[in-house]
Amino acid sequence: xxxxxxxxxxxxxxxxxxxxxxxxxxxxxxxxxxxxxxxxxxxxxxxxxxxxxxxxxxxxxxxxxxxxxxxxxxxxxxxxxxxxxxxxxxxxxxxxxxxxxxxxxxxxxxxxxxxxxxxxxxxxxxxxxxxxxxxxxxxxxxxxxxxxxxxxxxxxxxxxxxxxxxxxxxxxxxxxxxxxxxxxxxxxxxxxxxxxxxxxxxxxxxxxxxxxxxxxxxxxxxxxxxxxxxxxxxxxxxxxxxxxxxxxxxxxxxxxxxxxxxxxxxxxxxxxxxxxxxxxxxxxxxxxxxxxxxxxxxxxxxxxxxxxxxxxxxxxxxxxxxxxxxxxxxxxx
Amino acid sequence: xxxxxxxxxxxxxxxxxxxxxxxxxxxxxxxxxxxxxxxxxxxxxxxxxxxxxxxxxxxxxxxxxxxxxxxxxxxxxxxxxxxxxxxxxxxxxxxxxxxxxxxxxxxxxxxxxxxxxxxxxxxxxxxxxxxxxxxxxxxxxxxxxxxxxxxxxxxxxxxxxxxxxxxxxxxxxxxxxxxxxxxxxxxxxxxxxxxxxxxxxxxxxxxxxxxxxxxxxxxxxxxxxxxxxxxxxxxxxxxxxxxxxxxxxxxxxxxxxxxxxxxxxxxxxxxxxxxxxxxxxxxxxxxxxxxxxxxxxxxxxx
Lengths: 333, 302
Hints:
By secondary structure, chain A is mainly α. Helix content of chain A is 68%, strand content 1%. Chain B contains 15 helices and no strands.
């Protein structure tokens, strides 16, 4: 952005003072086929054309090299070692990977991750769809309610999780518990209950993501031809049948891809779980990322933690690749 | 999608029953339906804004009980902020602002140049460059957390450690595949003729970039800035692994240290949460249109 604020000086400031035809100065002229100087300068222009884009790309590529690709390579490399801070790393081949298969806690975390990703995504789209139907329209009230309901999406995950940790306070006087008591329900232990904790974590995920899905669905709804509703209604189709045969088919293409990608992203969930439960109680909400964090930064078992990260990466890579391939194939046919 | 949306809008003459999927009646003559709708709206607001409103009131409320939150303040006070301040709230806020400001500037700068190269140039290796950039979206902090912390502890070839510095939280945010991709999509839509005309007039590369392309993709820049802000403000794992002591924490990470303070119960945490919440909400409210347009562009194209 800073580069756009003033005329640049890389090629002599005299040429860069106005849009008018001012190239009488000896600076490198634009390519002009037929002019006498065109042979050497055309080569220079071509060279510049080849180099300049890479120059523009270099900051991005450098940052990605240092903070994405080098760490990735290092992670893959580490995953074959038993990392020992002072004794030196020891090559263990695939041992870390076979350990993943053996370790009960990792298998459980994997199960929780899949449940979380699928349930959170499915819940969010369901709630989002209902919200979108409810809030579709051009009235100002609707616009206001939509904007307000969208706030959970813009709030930082950490803030959301901290607030919900308070709402879930397990005593009688906790906010959700006092709300539940109005309906005659007993006090819940929420995140302290190993059987329910994962469910309550998922609820927070749905709460945060449903308004996002609502906006996507609303954009989809807006693209539906209104006459379809009218003619369907004239043909005697009730609300449910209109939704099933007009609305849903129109939304399907955009929404299915979005959902799959969201579910894959859900496999990498960390912050919510880390703040809400830290993986507890008794590992009942442990997901892959909280396991990896514990292994890497608390137990300092860097080799094994790296192997787990590589597995997580491959999992998301294969799933994303699969979805993309499927989408391409569908678009072609 | 936008095209068909405007088309269908102009095609429908007046608000009709079939303007919406539900086709609910609204307004005069249907008091029952209207009331039902209003009740439902209130419910939606309660569910999705209630918790955030509870943060607002709780931040200014003296709560003797360590667990209570409520929507109605009982005793207005600023004590919560004072005590949260003693617990480092203002340090965390300062860190957050430094990180967000620095990383956003860097990210927007990097994005603008990279997107320009990808969208407005044909060059050898372009497909490869695009792939290298898009592939980083598969490598978020979570997947590379462990080796990233090692790399930050000893930058290869430079022998510098960024651990325990705010710079270590800024630099990894500098490149973001998503924003490069979105901005280059916006840039591709600028007609080539404008660029060619300027070239004929003798404008150089940087002039074309700064005076033609950038001003014409302002909406795209808006999306990049706003999404970048949100993404950086939201960071949790990266600062967690980079920081070596709590006085380097940004707000998101620092909140956990304000969880329970004997004097004010949850008040300090709620004060901190409010401070962390306000910038995101303000940015969203101020740039709502850009935000939502980015949402659909990103969703449909990404």
